[in-house]
Amino acid sequence: MKLTEEVKFDKNGLVPAIIQDFKTLEVLMVAYMNKESLETTLKTGKACFWSRSRQKLWIKGETSGHIQKVKEIFVDCDNDTLLIKAEQIGGACHTGYRTCFYRKLDKDDFIVVGKKFFDPGKIYKKT
After folding, report:
1. CB of 34 within 8 A of CB of 49?
2. pTM of the entire predicted model
3. Which of 34, 71, 81, 120 is deepest in the core (most CB within 10 A)?
4. What's the confidence (pLDDT) of residue 1?
């Protein structure tokens, strides 16, 4: 059976995808995929997602060049969440950090524990 037929997409046609560095196992980000973005990912070998805010497909790194080369894809026991192990080129987070999980709870406040990889203002210019 094809992966796209096994995956249980939600009522909006989406499935959460956890992106993990395939070497370090660091969780880089969480995004959503629809059937088309999953098929594009399988075809190109680059992570492609569905942007809920922009309502369109986006290939990770299409603007920044910080792509995710997919190495392995896992599905959970309920077929409703994907785990994608990828080679991250550059930073994964649009705020400039390697991972979107760069803040840690310390007592009652979040502190930055990651380091910036790039300046998002130089990459994501407002048009």
Report:
1. no
2. 0.90
3. 34
4. 59
